[in-house]
Amino acid sequence: MSLFLNKPGGTDDHDKLKNLFNDTHPQYLVNSPSNNSRNTVVPTSSSTTALTVNGAASQTADIAKFASNGQNTVIDENARIGAGIVNPTARIHFAAQTTAANSAPIKLTDTWNLMTTPENGAFELANGIFYLTPSNSQRCVVNLVGINSLVLDNNYNDWNALPSYSTCLRLVPNAARTLTGLQGGFGGRLITIMNADSTNTITLSHNSTSSTYGNRFFFSTLADYALGPNKTVLFAYDSVNQVWRKVDT
Fold first, then answer.
1. Minimal CA–CA distance to 245: which of 168, 165, 187?
2. Considering only CA atoms, which of 111, 110, 112, 136 is closest in space to residue 122?
3. Total tally of structural domains belonging to the chain
4. Residue 140 domain-assigned?
């Protein structure tokens, strides 16, 4: 591999890199352009590797180290990457977060889109929901544990009371109440609805047209379901028929 350094105007220590290479046909340009970067490595061909760093035959020290503002990123002798870790013990090893902002080890940017075709090993975030494709191109929803506790002070259609992280709705009805549908369903989502009141009953309507198709409850009895005081019920969302199905036990 050949490197050629060109720093417009004047001479400094970087020019000494020129003396390390004798090839009269350099494949690379190491340049200090006007964009305030110290050096830029630019291959002269799109099919040429921009930069190769080879360790010794029995390398024991790090292959590369990048340090700035007291933080280190290393590539060790076994090609393991440590991001904020000087002695990585995995292929990629991230330092733990601190209480400071912007210190999380990994962040995913939320989007409305999922990849058209699931890819094995992929981890995605879409519309506040985490998806994992472990194998066989079968995308799975990562169900997060969370309880949303609310006073049920009215009758609701298409009730929007279910955050993406919730697995349980703990409801305290202040009178006999009726729910005809619940937003937030996606394939395989499990939701427990809990009546935490000791007196009032919550009626869950069967396939009620008062709620939009896609948000309705569906019962094997084809009848409304009375969720009595201090009772719970489990639903699984059927993405084919687009209904909340009661899990019968």
1. 187
2. 136
3. 3
4. no
Range of the domain at 162: 147-246
In a domain, 217, yes or no: yes
pLDDT at 18 over 70: no
Q: What's the length of the chain?
A: 249
> Is the whole model's pTM more than 0.85, yes or no?
no
Question: What's the pLDDT score for residue 46?
Answer: 84
Domain co-membership, 236 together with 160: yes
**What is the dihedral sign for C-alpha 182, 184, 189, 193?**
negative
- Bridge partners of 155, per DSSP, are none
* 115 within domain boundaries: no
Calpha distance 162→168 (Å, rounded): 9
CA–CA separation, 160 and 179 (whole Å): 11
Kindly report, residue by residue over 65-108, the tens digit of the pLDDT. 888 888 889 999 999 999 999 999 999 999 999 999 999 999 98
Distance of CA 76 to the CA centre of its chain: 27
Q: Which of 28-32, 56-60, 150-154, 223-227 has the highest mean pLDDT?
A: 223-227
The one-letter amino acid at 71: Q
Separation between Cα atoms, residue 77 and residue 82, nearest integer Å: 11
Q: Based on the fold, state whether residues 92 and 160 are members of the same structural domain.
A: no
pLDDT band at 143 (very low <50, low <70, confident <90, very high): low
171, 195 contact by CB (below 8 A): yes
Question: What letter represents residue 127's amino acid?
Answer: N
